Amino acid sequence: MLGERLQSVRKRRGLSQRELAARSGVALSLVRKVEQGERNSVRVETLRKWAEALGVTTTTLLEADGASQPESSHPDDLAPLREALQTGATDLEDVPTADGLRSAVAGAVRLYHDGQYAELTAVLPVLVKEAQTLVEQGGPDALAIRARVLQLVGSLATQTRVFDVAEIALEGAVTDAIETGDRIEAASAVITLCWLLLRERRLDEARVRAVDWADEIEPRMSRASNMELSAWGWLLLRGSAAAIRDNRPDEADEMMRLALSGAVRLGREHGSYHEYFTTFGPATVQMKRVENAIIESQPERALQLAREVSPGLRPTSDNRNRHLLDVANARVMLREYDKALDIMTQLTREAPEWLPNQHYAKDLLTTIIGRRRTLTAEMRALADAIGLEP
């Protein structure tokens, strides 16, 4: 159990519970509750603080039974997709064409980036069946198209925390993409798979996969295409995200530095809603630097970096939304609760389907509410909008 693991490492370091709490900045009461078995899971950010104080990697603490993989929420929400993945191709009255399916996938990608999850959930089972039928027919681009469809399924399932569906889809996407011989297509699927691994707290696996693939496709800067730089850069960002959470700050900084070199080479955000590949460029890297600063509990630095994100360089909306939550978190850390609430209220208007799927948002609002004696109408409305349980 997590508590036993934490206690074992703490004792080996010769620290009392009080000393660990002081070094990590985590409440003594939480240390005690975890070690006594009253809490069997905590946020990765908390584990990282303990790992830093103890001089170990976060993975060392995540090896505890039940601590490494948070439970999926609403596991039956994607039941039609799970069934489509498991049943294979079916007889269709209208046989799909490669061009028609590509167009449909482009539209589905737009739904994903716009946060239209309910509509996307209805569309994807049909796309999965059509892609599987196309593969059975042996079309020349069938595997590449199915890889894109499966990657989109994996993205939706990861976003909505239905992890079993996400893993089936993304492992399939990687396999299909590798079989096409297109390394960049395969790297795209791996980037999404690493995101899933991060959400499942499989930090070491995410870091190793990202680094291995970044090494595999490392471009020559003088000749690299925009897509090659984007793929390489995103692999490095995933690796950096895993490393910073695993208390490997030097590795995280080095990967972020390399990603920035690729972004500078691009000079702008590259990508569009009509490609699955999410955008990559200077603004995206800068936003991920903000995220790393939040993980390291450096709110002032996070806000400074956030001010340096150019408003003229637009990332995809889902990456921007996550960035805004990081900025809100910085405000919470500085006890600027009204400013944090303003950001989250903005997100309820701009991303009403995206926000309720973010445990991050729920955690932030729970913290804010816990600091107030009474709730304002704005707080109650926000709690309802993100599905915060009473």
Task: Briefly say what this structure is.
With 390 residues, this protein is mainly α. The protein has 20 helices and no strands.
Beta-strand content: under 5%
Average pLDDT figure: 87
Based on CA inertia axes, which overall geometry fits? globular
CATH architectural arrangement of the domain at 2-62: Orthogonal Bundle
Instruction: Spell the H/E element sequence.
Output: HHHHHHHHHHHHHHHHHHHH
Measured on Cα atoms, how large is the radius of gyration? 21 Å
Describe this protein's structure.
By secondary structure, the chain is mainly α. The protein has a domain of 61 residues: lambda repressor-like DNA-binding domains (434 Repressor (Amino-terminal Domain)). Helices cover 69% and strands 0% of the residues. The chain is built from 20 helices and no strands. The two termini are 28 Å apart. About 1% of the residues have low confidence.
List the helices and strands and how they pair.
Elements: H1 2-12, H2 17-24, H3 28-35, H4 44-54, H5 58-62, H6 79-87, H7 98-113, H8 117-137, H9 142-159, H10 163-180, H11 183-199, H12 203-217, H13 226-245, H14 249-266, H15 282-295, H16 299-307, H17 317-333, H18 337-350, H19 359-370, H20 377-386
Helix pairs in contact: 1-3, 2-4, 6-8, 7-8, 7-9, 8-9, 9-10, 9-11, 10-11, 11-12, 11-13, 12-13, 13-14, 13-15, 14-15, 15-16, 15-17, 16-17, 17-18, 17-19, 18-20, 19-20
What key attributes describe this structure?
390 residues, mainly alpha, single chain, 69% helix, 434 Repressor (Amino-terminal Domain), 20 helices
